[in-house]
Amino acid sequence: MTCSRCILTAILVVPGLTRLAATPADRVATVTGTPGCVAFWDFVQREPAGAQRFTAHVPAGATNKFPLDAGNYVRDFWGEGRAATYADFPLLGRGPFGQAIRIRQETDATFRPLLLVPRARLHDSPIDLKGPNQSVTVVVWAIRESGNHALAGIWHEGTDLKQNETAGIKKVERGQRQYALFAGLNKAGSACGHVSENGASSFLNRYALHKSNSAEVSPAVPADSPAAVLDASWQCFAMTYNHATHELTGWLNGAAGDRWLENPKTDTLIKSAYNAWLQGRLHHEPGLQPGEDPAFPADQFYNPPEDRLIATKILRESADERVELREFRYTRVEVTLRRGADGKFTEAARDLVALRLNPWWFPHDRLYTPANDGTGGPFTIGRVIHSSRSVGFTGWIGGVAVFNRALGADELARLASLRTAPSVANPARN
């Protein structure tokens, strides 16, 4: 695929930074030269011999280049469908770094291909980011055709959920989630970061719910669009988890933005977080409170810090009662105050009326740490292993990078700027 817009050089301009990107190799160096980069797949670099699988650019001296296998997880876990091969991932011959793979809208329910680094080849490696005091960033350059599911990460959702799709399953495994970047999930097209402390579920819900959503969303672009349209349609999805601040943030094209969920108690999924907030609040009051579940696990309470008041708004007021909306960094709480016999207002009730989705506050001090006993998941690109077997994300993926730290806004803007430089056509790689 060629177009007149394709040239060999481009000026990348971001706040406080201007540099010349003369070749795809120079653009790769921009990614790998960002501190903390532990692996970067550009879908150009391959093994020199044998299967010639895609390999990652890794730091000097590293021996594990994380070659990617083709797999069909339906075949692996249900015993259905055919084996996947590299032929199931068409190549574009162009992209931010010179190449891209396509994740297609598969119509065969027994075929869900993905690229993966098996657990046996990544356990305790630099991409096996886990445990306490561990931050992480995942960046994916992609064109989203459809879907809202996984782009890349270690996020084996498990095949143990009891649902129609798991009837007759051959291999049942609990969730083995660590970190991953999604194309939106509950906010389709956003950059959605996901982390887990236990590999499994959150707040007694069946799903893991610690996730963030960028304020902006990516457009849906047909994957077979003309070259000029595709060249102009690259998006830079990113997620950061900063262990020092406990913040999980989604970034689209270098911008995070604020996103709030109003009335979380009525949301299909986040109502579980609302209940975790309520149970945590009731638990910390003396005695057994009305509505309190004494069996609710303490490690699943969700009570973001409310030690710094950002704003207060009086919603309604009478001689004996005042209702205020108090905003904190991660929550908005409606507080009812009533006047006592002494004439002073004291708090009589409070309710969570909004929860911040970006950034999301993660209450735990560690990422899931699987032992080397089969309880850890693979690193996958394009899809993750999960019980529902849905198609997920479709479109083009032109680069996947993993960092062992939370990148800052300027660094993410710099990486996002790589998407806008003209692609260099490379038919030989098609």
**CATH-defined topology of the largest domain:** Jelly Rolls
Shape: globular
Strand content: 25-35%
Fraction of residues in helices?
Answer: under 10%
Quick description:
It contains 5 helices and 23 strands. With 430 residues, the protein is mainly beta.
Q: How is this structure best described in words?
A:
- This protein has 430 residues and is mainly β.
- It folds into 2 domains: 10-256 and 361-429, Sandwich (Jelly Rolls); 264-358, no CATH class.
- The protein contains 5 helices and 23 strands.
- The chain has helices at 24-32, 73-78, 227-231, 271-283, 409-416; strands at 10-14, 17-21, 37-41, 69-72, 101-103, 113-117, 131-132, 136-146, 150-156, 176-182, 192-195, 211-213, 235-242, 247-252, 259-262, 311-317, 321-327, 331-339, 345-358, 360-361, 366-367, 379-381, 394-403.
- Strands 3, 5, 8, 13, 14, 20 and 23 form a 7-stranded antiparallel beta sheet that branches. The protein has a 7-stranded antiparallel beta sheet with strand order 4-6-22-9-10-11-12.
- The chain starts with 9 loop residues before the first strand and ends in a 14-residue tail after the last helix.
- Mean pLDDT is 93; it is low at 1-20.
